[in-house]
Specification:
Elements lengths: L13 E8 L2 E7 L22 H176 L2 H120 L1
Antiparallel strand pairs: 1-2
Helix pairs in contact: 1-2
């Protein structure tokens, strides 16, 4: 045995911790002196024993027996293991056969159920398709009937609109004719009034002329009467009569001149008034004619635009109805094709 030298450390490693600031730490690590590793002791050498041949043979026989025993144990363990494997394989085969038979039965049951459900589904689908085709046919017939009714209604409306338009045009023409007759009547009445006014003015002029002649005749009579008086009265009154005659003649001439001027002014005023009235009547007539013509044109344009719009709407409605009918026919054709395909698929599967 050799001596083992072990050097122990005088002081262990020391770690000190001190909180320096908020949120941080400061560590102080103090290391001790280095340790010395311990050297393991050396084993003592075993003394060599001398063995004989008999001991060696005995040991060999014992080793052979141990080997045979180990082999027999291994063979027995292997046989037991093989027996377990065979049992497990047999159980596995039995379970596999049971699983296969159970799976086969379940699949056969599922196939039967699926076949029954498929046949019931196909039957139900055929019934639904038949009902759908009948509904589509009814819808098509109703749409055709509605289309015919709409077409007949639109044609009736167009006929009514055409008749109404003709009646409106006739009424407008009658109104225009009545208006022209009224204008002609007004023009005739204005012409008559103008003639009556001219006749009245002429009559007044004639009356003024007659009155002037009467006044002259009266003055002549008075002068004649003065001449038949005695000579002294005549001579004494000659100067007075002459003066009065001159004054009366001047007054009469002044009055006649003023009356003539007034008559001419009145005639001129009446003529201007009649002229202005005729011009106003002509302007009113032209305005009324232009207004009536514009209204007539506007009404005709509105009626034509309404008829055009109604015709376009009718064509659009008919086009829309035809598109709906075409879509329904396409849908019915697709349903028929699907029904035929389903029947074609169902016939081989059922066979």
């Amino acid at each position: 045995m050799t001596d083992v030298e072990v050097v122990k450390s005088t002081e262990p490693t020391e770690v000190r911790c001190q909180e320096k600031t908020r949120g941080g730490l400061r560590y102080e690590v103090i290391l001790s002196e280095p340790e010395v590793k311990v050297t393991p002791p050396k084993k003592a050498a075993s003394p060599k024993n001398s063995m004989s041949v008999q001991d060696i043979e005995d040991k060999l026989k014992a080793a052979e027996e141990r080997r045979q025993q180990l082999e027999s144990n291994k063979i027995a363990a292997l046989a037991a293991k093989m027996q377990k494997i065979e049992d497990a394989s047999r159980k596995k085969d039995e379970q596999t056969s049971q699983f296969i038979s159970a799976t086969r039965d379940a699949l056969e049951q599922k196939m039967e159920n699926h076949t029954e459900k498929r046949e019931a589904y196909i039957t139900d689908l055929k019934t639904k398709l038949k009902d759908h085709i009948e509904n589509v046919e009814k819808t098509r017939l109703s749409i055709e009937q509605q289309t015919d009714e709409v077409r007949s209604a639109i044609e009736e409306k167009l006929k009514t609109a055409s008749v109404q338009r003709d009646e409106n045009i006739k009424k407008m023409l009658e109104r225009l004719k009545e208006h022209e007759e009224q204008v002609q009547k007004v023009r005739t009445s204005n012409a008559l009034k103008f003639q009556q006014l001219e006749a009245a003015v002429q009559e007044k002029l004639e009356q003024a002329q007659t009155r002037r002649s009467q006044l002259e005749q009266e003055q002549k009579e008075k002068l004649r009467n003065y001449n038949s008086r005695p000579l002294e009265v005549k001579q004494s009154a000659v100067s007075t009569l002459e003066v009065r005659k001159t004054e009366v003649t001047a007054q009469l001439e002044t009055k006649l001149t003023i009356a003539e001027q007034k008559r001419e002014q009145e005639i001129q005023r009446k003529l201007e008034t009649a002229k202005k009235h005729n011009e106003h009547l002509m302007e009113v007539k032209q305005t009324i004619e232009s207004t009536e013509e514009n209204r007539k044109t506007e009404k005709v344009t509105k009626i034509e635009s309404k008829l055009t719009t109604a015709e376009q709407n009718r064509e659009k409605e008919i086009q829309r109805k035809l598109e709906i009918i075409k879509k329904n026919e396409k849908r019915a054709e697709a349903v028929r094709q699907n029904k035929a395909n389903l029947l074609a698929q169902g016939t081989p599967s059922s066979g």
